[in-house]
Amino acid sequence: MRHVPLRMCVACRRRRPKGELLRILMTPEGFRLDPTGKLPGRGAYVCPDNPDCWAEKKLRRFAGARAKALSEALWAHLGGKDGQSTHLPAG
Questions:
Q1: pLDDT tens digits, residue range 52-70?
Q2: Which positions fall inside the YlxR domain (predicted)?
Q3: How many CB atoms within 10 Å of residue 32?
């Protein structure tokens, strides 16, 4: 049986297999989505299928003052308004 790495959502603190979560990197240019999970840098994970996890208040743990911008970008990307975007603006 193959080992499946578990990661924790920064918003709801639920542990899930890494492949079920969306990785977000914080870069000097802003936030960047990493669906492959292989881009270099420190990242955090968020549940892509749970809109409660995209709330600004729950993202403050990871993004601090930029949580509002990250929340809006997640809503735009995962909410279906802008499904093509892979680079999130810094706020």
A1: 999 999 999 889 999 999 9
A2: 7-73
A3: 17
| pLDDT at 46 > cutoff 90 | yes
Going by pLDDT thresholds of 50, 70 and 90, the confidence category of residue 81 is very low
The phi, psi pair for 28, rounded to 5°, reads -60, -30
State in Å, rounded, how far the first CA of the chain is from the last one: 43
Q: Which two tokens stand for residue 42?
A: 């420190």
For the chain, the domains span: 6-89
**Residue 67, CB-side half-sphere exposure with 13 Å CA sphere:** 16
The token duo for 44 is 């955090």
Cα–Cα distance measured from residue 51 to residue 38, given in angstroms and rounded to the nearest whole number? 24
What's the CATH architecture for 6-89?
Answer: 2-Layer Sandwich (3.30)
